[in-house]
C-alpha cells in the first residue's frame, strides 16, 4: 500500500520510509505524488495543523497520507513558542529570543518539552492522531553542533539535544515517540 508523506523534507521521508517498509508500505513525498502545495497552518493546536497539512494532500490524491507538526513548549512562557516554533523569530535568532525571555527564570522553573503530532488519514478518509513528547529544560546558553532548530538550548539529560549523537536523539525524541505509536497502529492493521 502507498502512503504519501505531506512534506518534502528528505530526513523525515527517509525516517518514515525505513520504519514502514518492513510492513509492506511504500512511502512517497507529496512532490512525488504530484501534490505541489503548501497548506497554511491556521490551526491553534499541533493536532489541527498536522491535520490541515494531511487533509490538503489527501483532498488532491485520495490516497493514505501522513503529516506531522512539531514544536517546543516552554512552561515558564505559558507554552510558547508552541505551534509558532517555526516562526518565533527570524532564522538564527529563535534560540536567542527564548534565552532572553528566560534570563530571570530559576533552574526549577525552566522545564520544557518538544511535542510532535502525527496525523494519518487512511483509506477510509478518517483522521487518526499520534502524539509524542520529550521532556527537558531550557539551558542558559546554546551548546552543541548537531541537530537543528531549538536543539542547542534544549537540555535533555546533562547534554543538549545538539550535543547528543543523532542516533541517540532519534531514539528518545518527540518524533521517535510519535512514530513508535504510529508504528504500533500500523502493526495492528497488518497482523
Ligand atoms: P514543523 O515543520 O511545522 O513541524 O515545524 C517545527 C518547528 O519546531 C521547527 O522549525 C523547529 O523550530 C522546531 N522543532 C521541531 N522539532 C524539533 C527538534 O527535534 N529539534 C529542534 N527544533 C525542533
How is the secondary structure organized here?
Elements (H helix, E strand, L loop, with lengths): L1 E4 L4 H11 L5 E4 L16 H16 L3 E10 L19 H8 L9 E11 L5 E12 L15 E2 L10 H7 L1 H17 L1
Parallel strand pairs: 1-2, 1-3
Antiparallel strand pairs: 3-4, 4-5, 5-6
Description:
With 191 residues, the chain is α/β, with parallel strands linked by helices. It has a single domain (2-190), classed as Maf protein, CATH 3.90.950.10. The chain has helices at residues 10-20, 46-61, 94-101, 166-172, 174-190, and strands at residues 2-5, 26-29, 65-74, 111-121, 127-138, 154-155. A six-stranded mixed β-sheet has the order 2-1-3-4-5-6. The chain is globular. Bound molecules: inosinic acid. Inosinic acid is lined by residues 69-72, 85-86, 114, 147-151, 161, 173. The site of inosinic acid has 14 residues, from strand 3.
Amino acid at each position: 500500500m502507498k502512503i504519501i508523506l505531506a512534506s518534502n523534507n528528505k530526513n523525515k521521508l527517509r525516517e518514515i520510509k525505513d520504519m514502514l517498509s518492513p510492513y509492506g508500505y511504500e512511502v512517497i513525498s507529496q512532490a512525488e505524488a504530484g501534490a505541489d502545495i503548501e497548506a497554511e497552518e491556521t490551526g491553534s493546536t499541533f493536532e489541527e495543523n498536522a491535520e490541515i497539512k494531511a487533509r490538503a494532500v489527501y483532498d488532491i490524491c485520495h490516497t493514505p497520507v501522513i503529516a506531522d507538526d512539531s514544536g517546543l513548549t516552554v512552561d515558564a512562557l505559558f507554552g510558547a513558542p508552541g505551534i509558532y516554533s517555526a516562526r518565533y523569530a527570524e532564522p538564527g535568532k529563535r534560540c536567542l529570543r527564548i534565552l532572553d525571555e528566560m534570563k530571570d527564570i530559576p533552574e526549577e522553573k525552566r522545564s520544557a518539552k518538544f511535542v510532535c503530532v502525527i496525523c494519518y488519514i487512511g483509506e477510509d478518509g478518517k483522521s487518526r492522531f499520534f502524539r509524542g513528547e520529550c521532556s527537558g529544560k531550557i539551558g542558559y546558553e546554546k551548546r552543541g553542533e548537531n541537530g537543528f532548530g531549538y536543539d542547542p538550548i534544549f537540555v535533555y539529560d546533562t547534554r543538549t539535544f545538539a550535543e547528543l549523537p543523532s542516533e541517540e536523539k532519534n531514539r528518545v525524541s518527540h518524533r521517535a515517540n510519535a512514530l513508535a505509536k504510529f508504528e504500533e497502529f500500523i502493526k495492528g492493521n497488518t497482523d
